[in-house]
User: Which sequence fits this backbone?
């Protein structure tokens, strides 16, 4: 048997994906996934747009494209997504991506040598940990409070570890739903300049805001080109299309482009053209209005349900957007046992929070992530009532 | 400035892509690219299929999919592409790809440690060299004759270098148009078993056959699971969709799937569904018949033009399919000077062959790659006449 590369020995597939497969039973009310609601997809609009772009530009769309991205999308992404958020950038700053998860891979490929330190929020997105570890980086966790990572602890860890990268999901973070405070955003950009590391700002949820004030991305405070901003069409249009984009300094974009050349040559022109046309037709604001109204009701059903059916000792976040609520139990509950009883007896599912930590065996053992985007308010209420009953029986 | 990873220091972007940009002048008759003819794209069919798949299965197509691939495509790829070529495989052997170039990246990621040796045909596909080098592998060239790599030399180099991987494009190779002989295909599979290395069999051109007998893939001779077969929809349907697939042992597929999870999560469901439906409707055979008839005329125009306008001392391949003819001049011609005069004076372009070698400064300095798929027979004749005149003036 031919030996695999050393880098693969530290990497396992996503445990969460495996857990989700066990929840495929349609009877189960699942708070486990992280998918947008299927009702949130503008299927007919995408159908109409696919027809139009192929009709008008089919020969170019079906031919090889440039690695940097479908040129109309690079400009509409700036005009409709980046510039309105206050991000100053030109087309030379943009690279189109096969989903923003490709941005995690390419940034890792371009910056990370084995042993390099990546600072991460604790807990954080498992796919990011997997990407960094595939390039044999060492992921060092940063504690979070209600406003995200603490800047003093961050600076201490920077001095201690001399990191290559800081990975942060600033808005409605996965898995916690927390949003990084405004002052902290500015401070992070300043620390990146001062200590010269890369901030990988992954912001796929920012447009799913149901209440509270819009926050500018960390990238808007970046004076030295140390921040790479990742955006995605997965949560605002469709994840199945696999389209994202990033903004970075031209020199970094060139290096990432070289890395992308040998990764997938370029992102599908058809899916880029669909995302582009969706923006240019001005359909996004109305679409977000509808989707966010739907998700608001689901979030509210979840917060109501938790307060009604869960013990008062369950400490949870109060997200202003996104897809997730995060909670902690006091003491050391047996979460795997709870998950087993929940899925088998109560037919309701969630993800034990430990899987979002850098050490899944010792950290976050009393936490859980609850997704509210995939179920109707009615089913959320029923599911939380069932789960609350189980919990009150003792875990 | 934050330092890039060590792996990026040995990698530059494709020189060929840079040369191609210089040829963008529409007046130029270009033998430089490697694109399918724009006339070869079934635009209306793709439009119709996109409509149908979104209409019938839109909610699933726009949602997250599985990393392994869109399930209907995994089975139709086997039924319509792999099994007819004699490849024995089940769905557990299949991984869908964002273009077959992703197969080069994922295989490298999963198998290559820095310093590992990859044996490659000399000359070979530049994108593959770039992928292997990004993972800091050492690419060792294998001489080719008219039937591809020599098996005795291969075995010598295997003993000398203990390679992790052999990369081979067996059919209508890029850049030479050569096809690996039947006995050699079997011998390669046997050597891979004997010396336990991976054969990465990249076969995107095999269905573009204009004459001669169909050859079974190396994978059909693989008894030990050492061969990974890469296929692509780029040359038979559309490169802009970015859909490919590979066949390998289940354990290898699992490792590649883990690597793909953190590369792009999954390939676009929409483009996979389009490729799937194109196969299931049985449209491929008739489409290939038409496309291959068109390409046959272009290849014939090129072979005729070379024999009419080029000096007899120009030794070239006689491909039975694919997109390229490859030629060598005697002595040490100044190919960069010829390219400059060709594009500026004669308005005709080609790619100097040196760029397809492991050492571009010393190897293949007297060679050129001529692409015949992108121009009509008339323009091929005109272009070769112009180029022949320049050559006869001395290079």
Assistant:
């Amino acid at each position: 048997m031919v030996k695999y590369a050393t880098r693969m020995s530290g990497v396992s597939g996503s445990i969460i994906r495996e857990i989700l497969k066990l929840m495929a039973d349609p009877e189960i009310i699942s708070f486990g996934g992280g998918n947008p609601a299927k009702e949130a997809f503008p299927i007919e609009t995408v159908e109409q747009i696919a027809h139009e772009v192929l009709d008008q530009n089919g020969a170019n769309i079906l031919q090889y494209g440039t690695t940097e991205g479908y040129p109309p999308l690079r400009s509409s992404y700036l005009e409709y997504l980046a510039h309105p958020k206050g991000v100053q950038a030109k087309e030379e700053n943009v690279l189109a991506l096969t989903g923003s998860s490709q941005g995690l891979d390419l940034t890792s490929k371009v910056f990370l040598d084995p042993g390099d330190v990546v600072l991460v929020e604790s807990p954080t997105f498992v796919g990011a940990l997997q990407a960094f570890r595939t390039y044999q980086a060492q992921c060092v966790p940063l504690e979070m409070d209600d406003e995200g990572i603490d800047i003093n602890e961050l600076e201490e860890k920077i001095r201690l570890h001399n990191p290559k990268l800081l990975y942060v999901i600033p808005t409605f973070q996965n898995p916690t739903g927390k949003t990084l405070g405004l002052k902290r955003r500015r401070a992070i950009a300043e620390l990146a300049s001062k200590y010269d590391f890369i901030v990988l700002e992954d912001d796929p949820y920012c447009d799913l805001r149901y209440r509270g004030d819009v926050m500018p991305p960390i990238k808007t405070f970046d004076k030295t080109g140390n921040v790479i901003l990742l955006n995605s069409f997965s949560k605002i249009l469709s994840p199945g299309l696999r389209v994202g984009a990033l903004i970075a300094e031209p020199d970094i974009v060139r290096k990432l482009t070289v890395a992308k050349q040998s990764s997938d040559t370029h992102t599908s022109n058809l899916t880029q053209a669909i995302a582009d046309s969706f923006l240019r037709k001005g359909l996004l604001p109305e679409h977000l209005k509808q989707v966010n109204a739907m998700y608001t009701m689901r979030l509210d059903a979840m917060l109501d349900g938790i307060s009604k059916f869960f013990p008062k000792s369950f400490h949870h976040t109060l997200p202003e957007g996104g897809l997730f609520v995060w909670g902690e139990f006091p003491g050391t509950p047996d979460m795997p046992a709870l998950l087993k009883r929940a899925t088998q007896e109560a037919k309701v599912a969630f993800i034990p929070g430990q899987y979002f930590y850098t050490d899944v065996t010792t950290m976050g053992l009393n936490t859980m992530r609850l997704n509210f985007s995939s179920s109707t308010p009615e089913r959320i209420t029923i599911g939380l009532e069932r789960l609350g009953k189980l919990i009150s029986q003792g875990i």
